[in-house]
Structures are given as structure tokens and as C-alpha cells.
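LAB NOTEBOOK - FOLDING QUEUE
OPERATOR: T.R.
BATCH SIZE: 2
PURPOSE: Compare the predicted C-alpha cell outputs for two unrelated chains run back to back under identical settings.
PRIORITY: normal
REVIEWER: second-year student, initials M.K.

ITEM 1
FIELD SEQUENCE / FIELD STRUCTURE:
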Amino acid sequence: MKARYWVGGCLSAIILLAVIAAAAYYFLLQASDDLVESYTSPAPRDFARVEDSRQEAESAVERFRDFIIALERGEETGSLSLSADDINALLTYEDLFRDLYGMARVDIRDDKLQAEISVPLGMFNDRFEGRYLNGTGELAIEMKDDRLMVTIDRLEVGGRNLPEEFMNEIRKNNLVEALYQEPSLERFLQLVKAVKIEDGRLVIQPR
């Protein structure tokens, strides 16, 4: 069950935070050294940790795990509804997301999932060792024609929006399209009817 649970977990919207970093990193790879220097920082962003109730955090983790497992077993289950605090609790306490610990904090505003990120770019390429991508991204998430669509509406790095010529290209892409090339991930996606932001919460609705 652990392997199958990993499949479902990787498809949660929380993992999509990594997509924000990947999109900005794509820009940096195309940029000159001067732009890389300009848009990155020598220090990570310090996310002040909100001391949530341990009981509330554990409840969010348990609800997430129960939902994924029920979905994979084909059991009847209701929608999973997560607040921004729930998502941040998962980023802190859920083992699946331990590699993202300290790299992101999310908020939900105006039906958009927003994420502050602080990514050490040295983990991608030694060229950027000691440089951090500190920014804010805004994701739009929906199911369209039974397909999960995730796009980036806005991406701010180093306190500035990325140039429009780059953002225009980034906005055209469904950032999770590659998931449909992996059979096990595609099968799991077929179990999901809708993913949306509703009343300030991320809602994942099973079929």
C-alpha cells in the first residue's frame, strides 16, 4: 500500500508547489548570469512557523492519508477539503512532502492557490550553488474535459514579477500534462472528478 499511497500523494495539489519553482527555474536557465544574479538571493526566505495545534495538524495529515487510501481502494469517500493551514500542516508533518520542508508556505485567496517559495537552486545545478529562488506564485487549478489543468497566472521572484514575455509562454502550459504520460499516475487521476478552490479551501472530489 505504501507504493500506491505514494502515487496518490504525489498527485495532491500540494506537490504542485514544486511546479512553481520549476517554472521559475526554467526562466533562470534561459537567462543571462546577470539576470540570474538579479532574480535570486544568497539567503533563503525565513518562513516564520505558525505554531498550530499538534492535534489539528495530525488531523489534517490523517484526513489526507485516509482520503488517498480510500480512493485507491475504490471505497466510498466524500470530498477532501483542505484549508491553507491544513496544507501547511501537511508540508510540515506529512512524510511524502519532507523534501519540501522549509521551501514553501501557502495561502488561498480569491479562488487561487498562492505559494511563497524559497528553493535552493544548487539542488538542481551546481552553477547556482548558494543561490535561492525566493518568490511568490499564483496557481489556477481546475478539471477540464476530465483532465487536471494547472497553470501559473502570476510569478514574482525577488520582489518583481517575471517579464511578460516569459510569463506569456508559461501561462500557455498545463504544468501537470506530463503526469498523463505515466500510466499509474494517469489511472489515479481518473479517480478524481474535480479539483477546485471553493470558499477559501482546496477541494478534491472523487468520482
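ITEM 2
FIELD SEQUENCE / FIELD STRUCTURE:
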Amino acid sequence: MKDLFGQAILDYQNGNYSEDIITSTSISEEDILPLPYLFRSYSEMPKLEQKALDLAYRKVLDVGCGSGSHSLYLQEKGLDIKSIDISEGAIKACHLRGLKNTEVLDILDEAETFDTILMLMNGTGVFQELKHVTKYLTHLKSLLKPKGQLLVDSSDIIYMYEDEDGGYWFDSNKDYYGELDYYVSYKGEDEEPFKMLYMDFELLKNACTAIGLKCEQILEGEHFDYLARITA
């Protein structure tokens, strides 16, 4: 991976902002992801993210922290926050922004335990594909302290498959319509495509129930998205 996402975040942090990230998926056209959006304050965040931050308590793990905006808010509130991401550029930017506990780390390699685990901005994307969900949830379960919670958001993207007649079309080669190939471009360079999973709430709930986790919907967003709290 070229880490174009991390490069863009680091450019913005270092005052070298000249253009935005371009994203697309296997079922959608190119879209612009403005870099300033990744550096938003609490007041600029969607209600789902605000609610998740309001519910976070004690020792917190921010998975896929990106530029660190969620972590910074919690650190300023006095919480014990650890921020991890597989992007070296993103973690460098987090360090420059003043986050005290950051690490380039895949969630499957995390070994500490936490009272709150945050997975935001389509947190189920970390699972990549449906076949990996049980593996990830089982590991996340092992990272929760007694009475700990996992706060994760995602979207039911079935609406993206609706045709003009009100029916739905699906790729028969996919196990689930929420499995997408995700593409990132920045400053004329293309990142290697990677897998991204969007899960509808009932599917996430069923996956949790199968391994002894409780999953409840905390808040519903304005566009088919939701925030879920998962506990043991």
C-alpha cells in the first residue's frame, strides 16, 4: 500500500493542503473527500459520532483513528485514549496534533483491554468482508474489560442497488451486497484497491448473537446509517 490516505492527512497537518482525496467504490462513481472534513471539531461531527463520543468512558481504544479528531476530543475530556491505525502517515499526524498514545497497529494485533472501543466512520469497514466478521468480533470481544462496550457505526447500503422500477440488482459473485471494492486517489496517484464492508444492523446483530455478544442500536442516522453498542 502507498498509504495515500495517510500522506494526504499528513500533508494537511503540515500545511501542504493543495487538493482533496478522490474516492470511489465498485458500485459508485468518483467522489471528493475534503481533507478539512477529517480534521473536524466535535461540533462539526455527525450526530452518530457525537453520540459515540458522549458514551465513551474510562480507557478507550480508537480503531482506525485516521487524523485523530475523535481521539483528540476524548483526550481533552481527560479520558485515557489509545489511537491506532494501519496508516503510518495518519499516526504521524496524530502525534503532531498532540495525541499522547498512538501506534501503527492492526486491530487483530492489539492485546490490551479497554472499557470502550470506538470504530467510527463506517467501523464495520475494518472487517473487510463478511467471511471475516466472526474472526474480528471474537477478537474485539477479548479486548473488552468487564462491562466494556464496542461502539461501531455503519450503513445499510441496499438503497444503492435500487433500479428505476423499484427493484434491486446485486452482484451474484458477492456474498453480501455490502461488500465493496474501495478506491483512493491523491495527487494523481492511485492506491491499491481494498475491501470495505458495510453491514445492515440486523446482520451485525445476528453476527454478535452467534458469539455471545449483545448488540443494540443506539441511534439511527439521517441516511440509512446507525450507531450500535456491542457488549458481552
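REVIEWER COMMENT (ITEM 2): The first strand starts at residue 21 and ends at 25.
FOLLOW-UP: none requested
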